[in-house]
Each structure stands twice: as structure tokens, then as C-alpha cells.
Specification:
Helices cover about 20% and strands about 15% of the residues. It is an alpha+beta fold. The chain has three domains: about 10-90 and about 170-345 and about 465-515, Alkaline Phosphatase, subunit A (3-Layer(aba) Sandwich), CATH 3.40.720.10; about 350-455, Gyrase A, domain 2, CATH 3.30.1360.180; about 595-835, Extracellular Endonuclease, subunit A (Extracellular Endonuclease, Chain A). Strand 29 and strand 30 form a beta hairpin. It is globular and about 95 Å long. The relative contact order is 0.09. Its main location: secreted. GO terms for molecular function: alkylglycerophosphoethanolamine phosphodiesterase activity; calcium ion binding; nucleic acid binding; phosphatidylcholine lysophospholipase activity; phosphodiesterase I activity; polysaccharide binding; scavenger receptor activity; zinc ion binding. Belongs to the nucleotide pyrophosphatase/phosphodiesterase family.
Length: about 850
């Protein structure tokens, strides 16, 4: 328990005055380094008093050894500050605002800010000096004004950027409105806002702060949780340990280092109370407040008592804006206000105990809480052992509140696999629930509500509505009174770089997808170049070699084609995978005549947004039939993609029987005629598919897509296989795919489905004159359906929940397939990028 946490007033006062006042030569020596080149000064709470004094020692360059107290920048990190550190070094005695009594006071150099008559000249007034002592209007009292271009005082090379992060600021807090959050409400009303912003998983502080700073997923930058173990370093990263100060944990390039490398000075106030670099006139600040998270945990996010904390936060933001106005910077500085995650109701009574599941708890380690991670105590345990843990935790209780996964089986949208610091077994918790270890037979002492100690937590699935947080952008480079769609926090790093005129370091964001927040975006994205075009369809050739078929079923169909020709087709199936995918010549012989591929009108119907571009070297042929088009790969002997447009009038035809180990990528039920039904059963529409997964794939097409087409008048569907055997979220190379074959058959790890419709109801895609609505799924292709505990029931009882769990972004599909979609969509390309980075969460409104 902290005796006296560092106040928000201290944080903001330091921010405002360090920006303009010449620094003391002793301020901010280099303390810990995130990437070797930059210092970060960290402030935490004082836990006890120490004898000695900081008088004349503030921010000294030497480190006092125990038992002596310290006055350097790290003293609060290591709980070793002298008892008068706040008074002597932070100058807290005078407070941080003017009062009527202080107006015109005699200057007192022991105060952090001043209300004396000379404070404006000396640039160290408290932020409310002009409104209170000079009778001028405050920033809040002014009207919204549109700033056409930055209006900065002389000497500024560019508009500075201040990034404010509020810990645990749940998006729904915004609904409290002017009565609680008047300053935030004005920022939101006058600037650019999103309904909410989605954090990364796990929705914890350190992973998301560093994601905001780098634009990288936690699996990419390495800070995968607030606490973690690295098996190579053989070291633990913890919030209260010194190891977190070691640069080796921190990957990627945070915005302040990007700025420094490109000659832009940075002043960073960062975790968990405040930290700072001091240069002369920095151009980027990153600031983090530990509130309202701390009180959100204690009180719960729905407590009315939390309003007092929110008012204090809002008041501090008002101080910042008043200070900027007082320094004539309010039309110059760009401000980004974000949260790192939301907050959910949670209580220790809602806890799952692993001991009650029959696990050998002495053989495992558990990172408990809202996102459980299980590792072995003995690192010689095999992958089989991890699979056994998952099996022992799968669907064991009637009301089980978590799903166990091998990390590579987690939903792709979480991007939480490809890092050695993520344990092999993961528990995806239900909202409001925790997991904990327990003694054998689970003899646990569950605390009563009065002694639990918390009523709120975070870390849950990042698509849950309570985990969403805020984004507000305000300043001359942001659009005026503009709302943009929901986006993920990986996208902000590129925006920060655009605001500062920087070239971004490599990151997981999609540069240009948030151009809509900026008045004059400096970066114009362009479509990637197509690497491989489809090869022309060769003339049909007579089959002269033995195909090795087990049986041949010949059916004669008379087709009335546009050229009044009549053709007899031979439709051949084989039971063996190898023979099924023998040669492209055989596929072409099945088609018999190119005249059956009436290409142009079908392109328009089934590819309304153009053919997907293939961004890697391969060989494929585009085939267009009556009811669908596909890009058939000669290398993996299956479609890279298949597309069809489904109208509200869907025909209900009995499905053709298929070989048990194979399935049709597109269901023949959608075919309107015998000819098109026959075309849908061609081998070019066939993929290897586990029988258990067919239940999911079939229900998606026969039920979900039918309903979507009725609800949206018509839909376009793009679907195909995914290969990600190394679990890195990127398309596997052909060599990698061949390492995981069954005979000569390539087994997909996932299948994708992208569903597009017109945003305007009652408009078909042909008529659509506005935006598009996109829903996307990346479905794991597995031999059983154990992920759904009621999979023994009818598909209508469980498949749709599985689909929602595995929702995804189109951009995720592009990375996993090497394809580029919506090439010819009638939308600005930046809007196309925004569609690709959007994810349908199927959650209630935040």
C-alpha cells in the first residue's frame, strides 16, 4: 500500500514546465534503457521513509548505496528516496494551481509553479494563472474552433505531439458526459474520435503501452504480459523487479526512438506515474497516468464512486489544455488521448481452480488471473505433455468458464502465439472470471465479498466490449468534429509518425488505414503490385494416359449454351488423394471445352471487387463457372480462392455425396441449375477437409450465408484455404507446406471466409453507392470439434458461436494467404484499407 502516490498535478506541472524552461544540468540522467539509446525515468509510490535529506542533491548523478537514501531518478523505482524527495525535488509544497490568495504572491522558489506577477515573463505560472488571476477565459469556456493550419510561436520547427495514456479507461466512461468529464467531452466533440479503440490481447498495461509506442503486436515486441518468463534468458520480467529495466526484453522501435533516430527531440513521461527526458523544446511526449485503473480495480467499473477519480483525471487534462493556451500553444500542439485497455466487473468469487480439474499442480506453473498461461516446471516435458494438459482441461465441467488451447490453436485474431515467452498452454477466460492454482482436491478458502479486495479487472479477450478503450485526437493536424470507425491500437504508431513527419519503423499496422483522422495526411498508400497473374486456360486435350481411377461415374448432361452447342461431360471421382490431384491436364480435360467458361459476365457477378491479386510466385488459373469463380493453384492442387455472389433467392437442392476425406469448397446447394450444380462438383472446387470440420463449413454455407443474403439483399463471398504450419501469422512457403503433407495432399491449417455486402440496407452490391459491410472468419481446420463443448448437438446450437470466436480482419487473411482483396472496389483506397483492418466482434455496443 502506498503512503502517498505521486499526484497527477505533479505529473502535469512537470510536463508543462519542462517543455519551455531551460533544464537544470542535473535533471534526468540516463537511467534505464529500452533500446540502449534512450533514458527513461520511472516514478512509483513511496512505501516507507528514509533518513537523510535531498537538499542540494536533487537528481544527483551518483547512486547512493544502501542504507543511505537516494535522490536520483530511480529512487522511487527502488523505494529508496529520502523522506523529503517530494518536497525538495518535486516541489509539492505549494500545490499545482493558483488560488485567489496566491494571485500576486511573492515568488517562492520552493514551489513547483507560481502565481507571482512575473511568472508569465519567466514562463513558470501555474496553469490556471490567466483565468483565475487575470480574468481571462479558460480553455474549457471557449467554443470549438477549427484550426486550418498550425499556429505555433516562433522557433517551432513542427507542431509538438503529446500522447496521453489513461490506464484502464473503459470506453463506456465517456457516456458520463459533461457533468463528470467536461474537458474530455470538449476534446471529443471538437476533434477526431472513434466510438472506441480495441487493445491487443492480453488487455494488460505493459503489452498495450508498448504496442501503442511501437505499432507491434505483443508477440512481436516481446512484452507479452505484465509478468513473464523467458526460457532463453532464464529470467523473469515483473512489474516490481529490476529485470524489467533490462533492454533485452524490449523489441521493436518505440516512437521516441524513431523520433530521435530521425533528429526529432523527444520528452517521454512514462510508466507508471511519470517519467521524463529533458531536452530543449522536445517535439513528442508520451505520458501515462495510472488512473482510473487503480480505482477501477478497487471499486469496479460500474461504481458511482469512480466518478470522483474520473473528475480528477478530467481536471488534470483541463490543466494541460489551460497550460497550452497560456503558453500560446493551444493552436500549435497535437494531442492524442488514449487508454491502454478497459475494465470489467470481476471478483474473487468468480475463480476457476485448476486443482479441481485433476491436474498435477505440482508439475506445472500458472500465470493466474484473467488470461491464464500454463507452463511446465520441468522444461524437458514434451509437446505430448502439453496436449495432455489441454485434453484434461477440455469440457470437463458443466459450467466451465475457460477454454484451454495449445497456443498455436488460439484464434488467429489474437496474434498471441509466435513468441517463446508465451507458454504452450493458454486458458481463454470467460469475461468476469479468473483462474488460479489450488491444492489437491481444491480445498480453497474463497474470500467473502467484504475481504476480496477487488471488484474490477482486465486482461480478457480483447474483443469483449468492456475491454475497449478510447481514442481522441485534437489539434491543428487532426480533422475537426470527425468520427472515424473503430480501429486497433496497432494503427496509432503510423499516425504518430505522420504527425511528426517521421518514416515509421516496420510495424504491424497498416499505414494509411487511419488517414481519415488527419486533416492533410502526408502519406498516400498505394496498392501492392501483383506478382503472379493467372495463366491462360489451355485448349482441352484428350486424356491419353492412365489416370488410375478407382471408379468412373459417367453422367450425361445436355447444356443449352449461349452458342447453342450441346456437350456431353464425363464427371470422374477417385477415392485416393494422390489420384484426385494428379495433373492440371486432367482438370482441363474435365472442363472439356473453354466455351463452358463464360468468363466476362461471371467475372462481374462473382468478382464485383476484382480478382484477388497474388503477391507471391506461383502458378494458377482463373476459372469462372455459372455460379462461382476460382483461382486454382497448380502448385497445391486446390483453389487459392473461390468467389460467388449469393442473392436473397437461394435454391434448396440436395447436396451431392462427396468422398469422406474431401469436401467441396463451395456448397452445391447454392447452384440454380443442373449445369451449375454439376460445375460446383468439379474437382477444381474440391479441398481436403476433416469430416468433423465439414459440419462447421457446411453450416456456415447452408445456414449462416443464407441468412446473411436474406438480411442484406445479396452478399459476395470469398473463401479458400490457409497454410500456417509455423504459426507466425504469415503465408507458408511451398517448401514449408510440403513439410506437412499427407502423401501428396496439402492439408490446410485453416479456411477463411470473407463476406461483403452493401452498408445501405436494401441495396444490392450492383446498386451499392456507399460503403461496404465486411465480415470475416478464419476457421481452424482440426480433426475434431472439441473446442465446442456441445458439438455433439445439432450444428445450429454451437457452430455460430464458434464462428464468432474466430472472427478476424481481412488484413489477417491477406497476410496468411499472400492475396490482396478489393482491388477494384469503388471506394477510396484509404477506405479500403480501413475495411481490411476492421473486425466484426459480434459484441453489444460499448
Amino acid at each position: 500500500m502506498c503512503f502517498r502516490p505521486v499526484s497527477h498535478q505533479e505529473m502535469w506541472t512537470k510536463l508543462l514546465h519542462r517543455a519551455e524552461v531551460s533544464p537544470s544540468p542535473h535533471v534526468c540522467t540516463c537511467v534505464y534503457r529500452i533500446r540502449l539509446t534512450n533514458c527513461v525515468c520511472v516514478c512509483v509510490c513511496v512505501l516507507s521513509d528514509f533518513s537523510g535529506s535531498c537538499k542540494g542533491r536533487c537528481f544527483e548523478l551518483k547512486e547512493a548505496e544502501p542504507p543511505n537514501c537516494r535522490c536520483d531518478n530511480l529512487c522511487k523505482t527502488y523505494l529508496s528516496c529520502c523522506s523529503d524527495f517530494d518536497e525538495q525535488c518535486l516541489k509539492t509544497a505549494g500545490g499545482f494551481e493558483c488560488s485567489r490568495e496566491r494571485c500576486g504572491e511573492v515568488r517562492n522558489e520552493d514551489y513547483a509553479c507560481h502565481c507571482s506577477d512575473d511568472c508569465l515573463l519567466r514562463g513558470d505560472c501555474c496553469t490556471n494563472y490567466r483565468p483565475l488571476c487575470k480574468g481571462e477565459s479558460s480553455w474549457l469556456e471557449g467554443d470549438c474552433e477549427e484550426i486550418q493550419s498550425p499556429e505555433c510561436p516562433a522557433g517551432f520547427v513542427r507542431p509538438p505531439l503529446i500522447i496521453l495514456s489513461l490506464d484502464g479507461f473503459r470506453a463506456s466512461y465517456i457516456r458520463k458526459g459533461k457533468s463528470v468529464l467536461p474537458n474530455i467531452h470538449k476534446l471529443r466533440s471538437c476533434g477526431t474520435r472513434a466510438p472506441h479503440m480495441r487493445p491487443m490481447y492480453p488487455s494488460k498495461t505493459f503489452p498495450n503501452l508498448y504496442t501503442l509506442a511501437t505499432g507491434l503486436y505483443p508477440e512481436s515486441h516481446g512484452i507479452v504480459c505484465n509478468s513473464m518468463y523467458d526460457p532463453v534468458f532464464k529470467a523473469h520480467f515483473r512489474l516490481k523487479g529490476r529485470e524489467k529495466l533490462n533492454h533485452r526484453w524490449w523489441g521493436g522501435q518505440p516512437i521516441w526512438i524513431t523520433a530521435e533516430k530521425q533528429g526529432v527531440k523527444a520528452g517521454t513521461f512514462f510508466w507508471p506515474c511519470f517519467v521524463w527526458f529533458v531536452f530543449s523544446r522536445p517535439y513528442v511526449y508520451a505520458i501515462h497516468s495510472e488512473q482510473p485503473d487503480a480505482y477501477g480495480h478497487i471499486l469496479g467499473p460500474l461504481s458511482n464512486e469512480l466518478d470522483n477519480t474520473l473528475r480528477k483525471i478530467d481536471n488534470i487534462i483541463g490543466q494541460l489544455m489551460n497550460g497550452l493556451k497560456q503558453m500560446n500553444l493551444h493552436r500549435c500542439v497535437n494531442v492524442i488521448l488514449v487508454g491502454d485497455h478497459g475494465m470489467e466487473e470481476s471478483h474473487c468469487e468468480r475463480t476457476e481452480y485448476l486443482g479441481s480439474y485433476g491436474l498435477d499442480v505440482d508439475a506445472i506453473t500458472l500465470t493466474p488471473g484473467s488470461s491464464g498461461r500454463i507452463g511446465p516446471k520441468n522444461f524437458t516435458h514434451t509437446k505430448k505433455y502439453n496436449s495432455e494438459i489441454v485434453a484434461n482441461l477440455t469440457c470437463k465441467m458443466p459450467n466451465q468458464h475457460f477454454k484451454p488451447y495449445l497456443k498455436q490453436h488460439l484464434p488467429k485474431r489474437l496474434h498471441y502465439t509466435n513468441n517463446r515467452r508465451i507458454e504452450d498452454v493458454h486458458l481463454l477466460m470467460d469475461r468476469k472470471w479468473h483462474v488460479a492454482m489450488c491444492v489437491s482436491l481444491c480445498v480453497c478458502n474463497i474470500r467473502s465479498p467484504a475481504t476480496c479486495g477487488f471488484f474490477g479487472d482486465h486482461g480478457f479477450d480483447n474483443k469483449i466490449s468492456s475491454m475497449q478503450t478510447i481514442f481522441l485526437g485534437f489539434g491543428p493536424n487532426f480533422n475537426f468534429k470527425t468520427e472515424v470507425p473503430v480501429f486497433e491500437n496497432i494503427e496509432l504508431y503510423n499516425v504518430m509518425c505522420d504527425l511528426l513527419g517521421l518514416t515509421p519503423a516496420p510495424n504491424n499496422g497498416t499505414h494509411g488505414s487511419l488517414n481519415s483522422v488527419l486533416r492533410k495526411p502526408p502519406y498516400t498508400p498505394t496498392q501492392p503490385e501483383e506478382v503472379t497473374s493467372p495463366t491462360p486456360l489451355a485448349p482441352p486435350t484428350e486424356v491419353t494416359h492412365d489416370l488410375g481411377c478407382n471408379y468412373t461415374h459417367t453422367r450425361k448432361h445436355t447444356h443449352s449454351l449461349r452458342h447453342t452447342n450441346t456437350h456431353t461431360h464425363t464427371h470422374t471421382h477417385t477415392h485416393t488423394h494422390t489420384r484426385m490431384f494428379s495433373t492440371v491436364q486432367w482438370i482441363e480435360s474435365l472442363l472439356v471445352h473453354r466455351t463452358t467458361l463464360k468468363k466476362v459476365p461471371r467475372d462481374v457477378t462473382h468478382l464485383p471487387f476484382g480478382r484477388p491479386a497474388v503477391l507471391f510466385q506461383t502458378s494458377y488459373t482463373q476459372l469462372c463457372h455459372s455460379d462461382y469463380c476460382s483461382g486454382f493453384s497448380h502448385d497445391i492442387n486446390m483453389p487459392l480462392w473461390s468467389a460467388f455472389t449469393l442473392t436473397a433467392q437461394v435454391h434448396d437442392l440436395e447436396a451431392l455425396p462427396v468422398v469422406s476425406s474431401l469436401s467441396l469448397l463451395i456448397c452445391v446447394d447454392f447452384s440454380a441449375t443442373a449445369e451449375s450444380r454439376y460445375e460446383a462438383s468439379l474437382i477444381t472446387n474440391t479441398v481436403p477437409m476433416y469430416p468433423a470440420f465439414k459440419r462447421v463449413w457446411g453450416f456456415l454455407q447452408r445456414s449462416v450465408l443464407r441468412r446473411y443474403s436474406l438480411e442484406n439483399n445479396n452478399i459476395n463471398v470469398m473463401m479458400g484455404p490457409i497454410f500456417d504450419h509455423d504459426h507466425d501469422g504469415l503465408r507458408d512457403t511451398e517448401e514449408k507446406i510440403k513439410e506437412h503433407t499427407l502423401g501428396s495432399v496439402f492439408i490446410p491449417t485453416h479456411f477463411y471466409s470473407i463476406i461483403s455486402s452493401c452498408e445501405t440496407l436494401n441495396q444490392t452490391l450492383d446498386e451499392c453507392d456507399g460503403d461496404l459491410r465486411v465480415t470475416c472468419f478464419i476457421l481452424p481446420h482440426r480433426a475434431d470439434n472439441s473446442e465446442s463443448c456441445n458439438s455433439w448437438e445439432d450444428e445450429s446450437r454451437w457452430v455460430e458461436d464458434l464462428l464468432k470466436l474466430h472472427s478476424a480482419r481481412v488484413r489477417d487473411v491477406e497476410l496468411l494467404t499472400g492475396l490482396d482483396f478489393y482491388r477494384s472496389a469503388a471506394l477510396p483506397y484509404t477506405r479500403v484499407l480501413a475495411l481490411k483492418t476492421h473486425m466484426q466482434t459480434f459484441e453489444d455496443d460499448v
